[in-house]
Amino acid sequence: MSRLRSTVLVAGLFAVGAFLPRINAQSERPPAPLPTEGSGIHFNSGQSVVPYFEGWIRNPDGTFDMVFGYFNRNWQQEIAIAAGPANNVELGGQPTFFLPRRQRFIFRVRVPAGFGKNEVVWTITANGRTEKGYGSLQPEQEITERVVMTNGGFDPGLTDPNKPPSMSIAPIQSPIAGSPVTLTVTVADDGLPKPRPAAAPPATSTPPNRFGAQVNSTTDAPRLTGLTVSWLQYGGPAKVIFDNAGPILVTNGQAVTTARFAQPGTYELVALANDRAMTTRIPVTVKVRAPASEP
Fold first, then answer.
1. Are residues 183 and 271 in the same domain?
2. Which end of the chain has less neighbouring CB within 10 Å, N or C?
3. Which residues are CB-neighbours of 81 under 8 A, at least 6 positions away?
4. pLDDT score of 219
5. Residues 114, 17: Cα–Cα separation, whole Å
6. Reduced to 3 states, what is the DSSP secondary structure of residue 40?
7. Is residue 293 part of a domain?
Protein backbone atom coordinates (compact mmCIF):
# COMPACT_ATOMS: atom_id res chain seq x y z
CA MET A 1 0.00 0.00 0.00
CA SER A 2 2.84 2.39 0.88
CA ARG A 3 4.57 1.50 -2.40
CA LEU A 4 1.37 2.41 -4.30
CA ARG A 5 1.15 5.76 -2.50
CA SER A 6 4.80 6.49 -3.34
CA THR A 7 4.17 5.70 -7.00
CA VAL A 8 1.14 7.98 -7.11
CA LEU A 9 3.06 10.76 -5.33
CA VAL A 10 6.01 10.55 -7.72
CA ALA A 11 3.70 10.50 -10.73
CA GLY A 12 1.89 13.54 -9.38
CA LEU A 13 5.13 15.44 -8.90
CA PHE A 14 6.19 14.70 -12.45
CA ALA A 15 2.80 15.90 -13.67
CA VAL A 16 3.13 19.15 -11.73
CA GLY A 17 6.72 19.54 -12.84
CA ALA A 18 5.67 19.13 -16.44
CA PHE A 19 2.95 21.76 -16.03
CA LEU A 20 4.96 24.43 -14.19
CA PRO A 21 7.25 25.39 -17.11
CA ARG A 22 4.18 26.00 -19.22
CA ILE A 23 2.78 28.35 -16.58
CA ASN A 24 6.08 30.21 -16.31
CA ALA A 25 6.43 30.47 -20.06
CA GLN A 26 2.93 31.88 -20.35
CA SER A 27 3.48 34.43 -17.56
CA GLU A 28 6.67 35.66 -19.23
CA ARG A 29 4.96 36.25 -22.59
CA PRO A 30 5.01 40.00 -23.39
CA PRO A 31 1.63 41.78 -23.41
CA ALA A 32 -0.04 42.69 -26.67
CA PRO A 33 1.16 46.07 -27.98
CA LEU A 34 -1.05 49.11 -27.57
CA PRO A 35 -2.50 50.75 -30.71
CA THR A 36 -0.07 53.67 -30.47
CA GLU A 37 3.03 51.53 -30.21
CA GLY A 38 5.27 51.18 -33.23
CA SER A 39 4.88 48.17 -35.43
CA GLY A 40 7.05 46.64 -38.10
CA ILE A 41 4.01 46.33 -40.36
CA HIS A 42 2.59 49.46 -41.98
CA PHE A 43 -0.85 49.40 -43.57
CA ASN A 44 -1.50 52.05 -46.18
CA SER A 45 -5.24 51.40 -46.07
CA GLY A 46 -7.94 49.13 -44.72
CA GLN A 47 -7.41 49.86 -41.01
CA SER A 48 -9.68 51.47 -38.42
CA VAL A 49 -9.84 55.00 -37.02
CA VAL A 50 -9.60 55.12 -33.21
CA PRO A 51 -11.18 58.05 -31.27
CA TYR A 52 -8.95 59.34 -28.46
CA PHE A 53 -10.06 61.25 -25.37
CA GLU A 54 -7.29 63.77 -24.67
CA GLY A 55 -8.71 65.19 -21.43
CA TRP A 56 -11.16 67.81 -20.16
CA ILE A 57 -10.91 71.55 -19.56
CA ARG A 58 -12.71 73.48 -16.81
CA ASN A 59 -14.41 76.65 -18.13
CA PRO A 60 -14.97 79.83 -16.05
CA ASP A 61 -18.77 79.50 -16.33
CA GLY A 62 -18.72 76.04 -14.72
CA THR A 63 -19.10 74.05 -17.94
CA PHE A 64 -16.48 71.61 -19.22
CA ASP A 65 -14.88 70.97 -22.60
CA MET A 66 -14.23 67.33 -23.44
CA VAL A 67 -11.27 67.31 -25.84
CA PHE A 68 -10.83 64.54 -28.40
CA GLY A 69 -8.36 63.52 -31.09
CA TYR A 70 -8.07 60.43 -33.23
CA PHE A 71 -5.63 57.86 -34.56
CA ASN A 72 -6.13 56.84 -38.18
CA ARG A 73 -4.15 53.59 -38.26
CA ASN A 74 -3.61 53.91 -42.00
CA TRP A 75 -0.42 55.46 -43.32
CA GLN A 76 -1.97 56.81 -46.52
CA GLN A 77 -5.73 56.35 -46.59
CA GLU A 78 -7.71 59.52 -45.87
CA ILE A 79 -11.30 58.73 -44.96
CA ALA A 80 -14.44 60.85 -45.24
CA ILE A 81 -17.17 59.71 -42.81
CA ALA A 82 -20.29 61.85 -42.55
CA ALA A 83 -21.81 62.50 -39.14
CA GLY A 84 -24.27 59.70 -38.43
CA PRO A 85 -24.22 56.08 -37.24
CA ALA A 86 -20.66 55.53 -38.57
CA ASN A 87 -19.35 58.76 -36.98
CA ASN A 88 -21.42 59.56 -33.94
CA VAL A 89 -21.16 61.88 -30.95
CA GLU A 90 -24.37 62.71 -29.13
CA LEU A 91 -23.66 66.46 -28.97
CA GLY A 92 -22.08 66.63 -32.46
CA GLY A 93 -19.26 68.79 -33.82
CA GLN A 94 -16.88 65.93 -34.66
CA PRO A 95 -14.61 65.91 -37.73
CA THR A 96 -15.85 64.15 -40.83
CA PHE A 97 -12.53 63.87 -42.68
CA PHE A 98 -9.76 61.78 -41.14
CA LEU A 99 -6.11 62.32 -42.02
CA PRO A 100 -3.59 59.49 -41.63
CA ARG A 101 -1.99 58.69 -38.28
CA ARG A 102 -2.31 60.54 -34.96
CA GLN A 103 -4.15 63.86 -34.87
CA ARG A 104 -4.29 65.41 -31.41
CA PHE A 105 -6.69 67.90 -29.77
CA ILE A 106 -8.92 68.02 -32.84
CA PHE A 107 -12.34 68.93 -31.42
CA ARG A 108 -14.28 69.64 -28.25
CA VAL A 109 -17.65 68.75 -26.81
CA ARG A 110 -18.99 71.21 -24.23
CA VAL A 111 -20.97 69.64 -21.40
CA PRO A 112 -22.97 71.37 -18.64
CA ALA A 113 -21.79 72.08 -15.11
CA GLY A 114 -23.84 69.21 -13.67
CA PHE A 115 -22.40 66.60 -16.03
CA GLY A 116 -21.18 64.53 -13.07
CA LYS A 117 -20.19 60.94 -13.82
CA ASN A 118 -21.73 60.81 -17.30
CA GLU A 119 -19.67 60.01 -20.39
CA VAL A 120 -19.27 61.41 -23.88
CA VAL A 121 -18.86 58.52 -26.33
CA TRP A 122 -17.46 58.99 -29.83
CA THR A 123 -18.04 56.06 -32.19
CA ILE A 124 -16.23 55.69 -35.54
CA THR A 125 -16.74 52.89 -38.04
CA ALA A 126 -14.13 52.79 -40.81
CA ASN A 127 -13.20 49.97 -43.15
CA GLY A 128 -15.71 47.70 -41.45
CA ARG A 129 -14.29 48.14 -37.93
CA THR A 130 -15.94 50.07 -35.11
CA GLU A 131 -13.92 51.90 -32.44
CA LYS A 132 -15.12 53.97 -29.47
CA GLY A 133 -13.60 56.73 -27.37
CA TYR A 134 -14.94 57.52 -23.89
CA GLY A 135 -14.64 60.91 -22.22
CA SER A 136 -15.43 61.53 -18.56
CA LEU A 137 -14.54 64.04 -15.85
CA GLN A 138 -11.96 61.92 -14.09
CA PRO A 139 -9.75 64.25 -12.00
CA GLU A 140 -6.48 62.83 -13.34
CA GLN A 141 -7.56 63.67 -16.91
CA GLU A 142 -8.02 67.40 -16.35
CA ILE A 143 -5.90 69.52 -18.71
CA THR A 144 -5.55 73.23 -19.47
CA GLU A 145 -5.62 75.40 -22.58
CA ARG A 146 -1.84 75.54 -22.42
CA VAL A 147 -1.66 71.74 -22.76
CA VAL A 148 -3.65 72.02 -26.00
CA MET A 149 -1.61 74.96 -27.32
CA THR A 150 1.68 73.14 -26.61
CA ASN A 151 0.37 69.89 -28.16
CA GLY A 152 0.55 67.95 -24.92
CA GLY A 153 3.17 69.84 -22.89
CA PHE A 154 2.34 69.70 -19.19
CA ASP A 155 4.69 72.51 -18.10
CA PRO A 156 2.35 75.08 -16.51
CA GLY A 157 4.52 77.85 -17.97
CA LEU A 158 4.56 79.96 -14.82
CA THR A 159 7.97 81.39 -15.73
CA ASP A 160 7.54 81.27 -19.50
CA PRO A 161 6.87 84.71 -21.04
CA ASN A 162 6.03 83.21 -24.45
CA LYS A 163 2.54 83.90 -25.77
CA PRO A 164 0.79 82.00 -28.58
CA PRO A 165 0.69 83.62 -32.03
CA SER A 166 -2.36 85.61 -33.12
CA MET A 167 -3.67 85.38 -36.66
CA SER A 168 -6.39 86.45 -39.03
CA ILE A 169 -7.51 84.94 -42.32
CA ALA A 170 -8.33 86.96 -45.40
CA PRO A 171 -11.82 86.41 -46.82
CA ILE A 172 -11.96 83.52 -49.26
CA GLN A 173 -13.69 84.53 -52.45
CA SER A 174 -16.38 81.96 -53.34
CA PRO A 175 -14.15 79.22 -54.79
CA ILE A 176 -15.16 76.95 -57.65
CA ALA A 177 -14.59 73.20 -57.50
CA GLY A 178 -11.39 72.21 -59.27
CA SER A 179 -10.04 75.77 -59.49
CA PRO A 180 -7.22 77.09 -57.28
CA VAL A 181 -8.07 79.47 -54.46
CA THR A 182 -5.58 81.52 -52.46
CA LEU A 183 -5.47 81.20 -48.67
CA THR A 184 -3.77 84.11 -46.92
CA VAL A 185 -3.06 84.16 -43.18
CA THR A 186 -1.70 87.21 -41.35
CA VAL A 187 0.24 86.28 -38.22
CA ALA A 188 1.67 88.31 -35.32
CA ASP A 189 3.86 86.96 -32.53
CA ASP A 190 5.97 88.13 -29.60
CA GLY A 191 9.17 86.71 -31.10
CA LEU A 192 9.45 83.98 -28.47
CA PRO A 193 11.00 81.52 -28.38
CA LYS A 194 13.98 83.04 -30.14
CA PRO A 195 14.71 81.39 -33.51
CA ARG A 196 17.39 78.76 -33.33
CA PRO A 197 20.61 79.50 -35.22
CA ALA A 198 20.96 77.61 -38.46
CA ALA A 199 22.90 74.38 -38.02
CA ALA A 200 26.38 74.36 -39.47
CA PRO A 201 26.71 72.19 -42.58
CA PRO A 202 28.48 68.87 -41.98
CA ALA A 203 32.16 68.71 -42.79
CA THR A 204 32.82 66.99 -46.11
CA SER A 205 36.60 67.01 -46.19
CA THR A 206 38.19 63.55 -46.11
CA PRO A 207 41.68 62.94 -44.72
CA PRO A 208 44.17 61.50 -47.22
CA ASN A 209 44.14 57.73 -47.76
CA ARG A 210 40.69 57.34 -46.15
CA PHE A 211 37.28 56.63 -47.54
CA GLY A 212 34.64 59.28 -46.88
CA ALA A 213 31.25 58.34 -45.48
CA GLN A 214 28.21 58.63 -47.68
CA VAL A 215 26.40 61.96 -47.21
CA ASN A 216 22.61 61.82 -47.02
CA SER A 217 21.32 64.61 -49.24
CA THR A 218 18.13 64.96 -47.20
CA THR A 219 20.11 66.43 -44.31
CA ASP A 220 20.92 69.45 -46.48
CA ALA A 221 17.27 70.53 -46.65
CA PRO A 222 16.70 73.68 -44.56
CA ARG A 223 14.52 73.32 -41.50
CA LEU A 224 11.86 75.89 -40.70
CA THR A 225 12.97 77.54 -37.47
CA GLY A 226 10.59 80.49 -37.16
CA LEU A 227 6.88 81.22 -37.22
CA THR A 228 4.87 78.87 -39.46
CA VAL A 229 1.30 78.24 -40.60
CA SER A 230 -0.22 74.85 -41.45
CA TRP A 231 -3.59 73.81 -42.82
CA LEU A 232 -5.55 70.64 -42.11
CA GLN A 233 -8.87 69.39 -43.39
CA TYR A 234 -11.57 68.85 -40.76
CA GLY A 235 -14.53 67.98 -42.97
CA GLY A 236 -15.92 68.09 -46.47
CA PRO A 237 -17.29 65.89 -49.24
CA ALA A 238 -13.89 65.27 -50.85
CA LYS A 239 -10.19 65.84 -50.36
CA VAL A 240 -8.66 69.32 -50.31
CA ILE A 241 -5.26 69.57 -52.01
CA PHE A 242 -2.91 72.22 -50.61
CA ASP A 243 0.09 73.37 -52.64
CA ASN A 244 2.07 73.40 -49.38
CA ALA A 245 1.34 70.13 -47.61
CA GLY A 246 3.51 71.00 -44.60
CA PRO A 247 4.28 74.11 -42.54
CA ILE A 248 4.57 77.41 -44.42
CA LEU A 249 7.16 79.91 -43.22
CA VAL A 250 5.64 83.27 -42.30
CA THR A 251 7.26 85.99 -44.39
CA ASN A 252 6.60 89.69 -43.76
CA GLY A 253 3.79 88.70 -41.41
CA GLN A 254 1.95 86.48 -43.89
CA ALA A 255 1.74 82.85 -44.99
CA VAL A 256 0.18 82.23 -48.38
CA THR A 257 -0.76 78.97 -50.09
CA THR A 258 -3.18 77.67 -52.72
CA ALA A 259 -5.90 75.06 -52.24
CA ARG A 260 -8.07 73.08 -54.65
CA PHE A 261 -11.43 71.60 -53.71
CA ALA A 262 -12.32 68.50 -55.70
CA GLN A 263 -16.11 68.76 -55.42
CA PRO A 264 -18.69 71.42 -54.63
CA GLY A 265 -20.02 71.53 -51.09
CA THR A 266 -19.15 72.82 -47.62
CA TYR A 267 -15.64 72.20 -46.34
CA GLU A 268 -14.25 72.66 -42.83
CA LEU A 269 -10.58 73.58 -42.53
CA VAL A 270 -8.33 74.49 -39.60
CA ALA A 271 -5.49 77.00 -39.81
CA LEU A 272 -2.67 76.54 -37.28
CA ALA A 273 -0.05 79.17 -36.45
CA ASN A 274 2.95 77.80 -34.55
CA ASP A 275 5.98 79.53 -33.00
CA ARG A 276 7.75 76.19 -32.31
CA ALA A 277 6.33 76.11 -28.77
CA MET A 278 2.67 77.11 -28.90
CA THR A 279 -0.07 76.79 -31.50
CA THR A 280 -3.15 78.85 -32.25
CA ARG A 281 -6.01 77.23 -34.19
CA ILE A 282 -8.78 78.91 -36.17
CA PRO A 283 -11.59 76.97 -37.88
CA VAL A 284 -12.51 78.07 -41.40
CA THR A 285 -15.66 77.19 -43.34
CA VAL A 286 -15.43 77.26 -47.14
CA LYS A 287 -18.45 76.89 -49.43
CA VAL A 288 -17.40 75.67 -52.86
CA ARG A 289 -19.53 76.20 -55.95
CA ALA A 290 -19.89 73.88 -58.88
CA PRO A 291 -18.32 75.05 -62.17
CA ALA A 292 -20.67 76.90 -64.47
CA SER A 293 -22.08 74.61 -67.12
CA GLU A 294 -20.82 75.28 -70.62
CA PRO A 295 -23.39 76.50 -73.18
1. yes
2. C
3. 49, 87, 96, 97, 98, 124, 125, 126
4. 43
5. 58
6. coil
7. no
Terminal CA-CA length for the chain: 108
Q: Are residue 99 and residue 178 in the same domain, yes or no?
A: no
Residue segments in the chain with a per-residue pLDDT below the cut of 50: 2-32, 37, 210-222, 294-295
Domain range enclosing 84: 49-149
- The pLDDT value given to residue 160: 82
Instruction: Supply the DSSP string of 186-197, one letter for each residue.
Output: EEE----SPPPP
DSSP-derived secondary structure for 85-121: TTEEETT----SEE-SEEEEEEEEEEE-TT-TT--EE
pLDDT of residue 203: 57
- Chain centroid offset of residue 223 CA: 21
Q: For the purposes of burial, counting CB atoms within 10 Å of the CB of 137, is it exposed (0-12), middle (13-18) or buried (19 or more)?
A: middle
The pLDDT tens digits of the residues spanning 179-237 come to 999 999 999 999 888 766 655 555 555 555 544 444 444 444 445 558 999 999 999 99
Q: Is residue 120 part of a domain?
A: yes
Global pTM value: 0.73
Residue 93 inside a domain? The answer is: yes
- Domain for residue 34, yes or no? no
Cα distance between residue 101 and residue 106, in whole Å: 13
Phi, psi of 125 (to 5 degrees): -115, 120
Q: Write down the pLDDT at residue 40.
A: 73
